[in-house]
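Predict the structure of Tyr recombinase domain-containing protein.
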Amino acid sequence: MRKASLHSRDEGDATRQACDIRAKRGRAFILSSIAGGTSVAKAANTVRINQKHSRAWSRWNKYLQHGGIRFDPFLQNPHSRRGIEIRYFILGFAFVLRYDWFGTNRGKQLTAGVVRQYIGSVCQTFVRRGLADPSRLQSGDLRPEFEEFFRACKKVDPAPNRKSGLQTKVFRKIRAPRSKPILHAIGELVNGAVHFAMRACEYTLSADPAPLTKLLTIRDIVFLKNGRPTTNRAEADHVMITFRMQKNGKKEESIVRKRSAVSPEFCPVRIWAGIVDRILSYPGTTLDSPVNTVQFNDGSLGSITSAAVSARLKAVVHKLDTTFPLEKVTAHSIRATYATMLFRQGASLETVKLMGRWKSDAFLLYIRQNSLMVDVSEALQACDTLNYIPVNN
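Done. Here is the predicted structure for Tyr recombinase domain-containing protein.
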């Protein structure tokens, strides 16, 4: 009995030891997973910081270097500060930014909002370094001198230049014959983009060297027949476009538009089939070719830029209405047009937000009540826009 008891006790000790080992391993697994998640979050945060703050930090360093301060961007060396508090360096930087001294348009005034974003980016870099935010009090409130500076700038800033929606006749007028390849390609792109409320950088080559939104390719466009992919674009009843990366953070978002039974000229399936057919007819193009690809008269391939689309839109609008404010017309007017036409047709704000792929309420800035701004109900009804269904794969 004694041996059996000792044997049972040994088994119990072994069991407890095994449980302890498993518990320790389990704890190590949990801690390891937490560390992994934290490292991924930090890596993602680093990418965002690099994209969003690199320009501001670069200008901050130029500002310091111009003042004879090198290799001390956080001003931790008393010799660099020369008895001046860091917050006053930041305030001086705000003044320099206001006139874009280290930008591409020196002397041109940046708005209070833009300057504030730059200052916020620089100060957040201080915080990430474990230092205090030079622009804020311990309570977290903005320091009075910064409040006064931004308030003074805002008082003299011009009114925001909101992009305008466009009238239906603009989308008809912008079309051009194939004998004018660039104008023809622009006309197709503009008419195709409006059906999906596209951002300028989704269908044209943006001037931004590192856009957050990915330019669409032919591979991103799929034609459907009875719910299944088809290579016969002429018989397709729907077109689906997948937006791989968007500035709102959404990835791999697929949106479907149906063939119009009323108006061939405003049918999204026909328009995008035309774009795909045209681009794939060019020698050397593939499914990875961007949707803004165009072949010039000499046979060479090029890209339609946002600037080219903006210039063409302005020219067309000016021909139709010489009094229209052209500064409100750009390649981004497509989104303003989409938001406004849906709203004017009676769609709810939630529907506009969903179908236009807006994550925030920023689309409310685009909605125009002024009839001068937009009159696209005809195009909307012709294309059955309210029946379009967003699809997420």
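The mean pLDDT is 79.
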